[in-house]
Write a structure and sequence with these properties.
Distance between the termini: 46 Å
CATH topology: Lysozyme
Radius of gyration: 18 Å
Number of helices: 10
Largest sheet: 3 strands, antiparallel
């Protein structure tokens, strides 16, 4: 009986570790693509942003700041976020990106991990309304044609706008093509 109990805890530890590794991979990818800045800056579209691509102009994000007890005016006055605050805001944004990715792609849960990463990265960057404009990319996904989905990513204003992020994200998508 004791062996079973210790095996379960070993199994639980392995599952927990795998989840932690996956979470770290997503953080590394998005932090590379967005940057990590503890002070307010303007993103490529001129939006005031902080942390890991946390758009301070977004009404939903302002509610998150309030919920977390972070005064937006202090941020605008130059206050830096702590590492913990950066992670907290990032986690809110990542949760939203995953939810949006699942709405965008009804088969998201069944996709290869690299395809999921590409969709989540685009969702994090664009948000669902803009991601939904990638209709031909969605058609490629629905056909499990990851090369077509990648081609449609390349054939977009997004790809031109995001500089080095575009090729990295497209490569994630293409890497699952058969």
């Amino acid at each position: 009986m004791e062996d079973k109990a210790s095996n379960v805890s070993v199994m639980e530890q392995a599952i927990r570790r795998a989840k932690e590794l996956r979470a770290q991979e997503y953080y590394n990818m998005i932090a590379l693509n967005e940057g990590v800045k503890p002070k307010v800056y303007k993103d490529s579209k001129g939006h005031r942003t902080i942390g890991v691509g946390f758009n301070l102009e977004d009404g939903g994000n302002r509610k998150i700041l309030k919920k977390e007890g972070i005064d937006i005016n202090e941020l605008f006055d130059g206050r830096e976020l702590s590492e913990s605050e950066i992670k907290t805001l990032y986690n809110h944004s990542l949760t939203q990106a995953f939810n949006d990715a699942q709405k965008f792609d009804k088969n998201f849960a069944k996709r290869p991990e690299k395809v999921k990463k590409a969709i989540v990265d685009m969702s994090f960057n664009l948000g669902l309304p803009k991601l939904n404009k990638f209709k031909k990319m969605r058609e490629g996904l629905e056909a499990n044609d990851y090369n077509k989905a990648a081609d449609e990513m390349v054939d977009s204003e997004w790809y031109k706008d995001v500089k080095s992020r575009g090729p990295r994200t497209v490569n994630l998508m293409r890497s699952s093509a058969k």
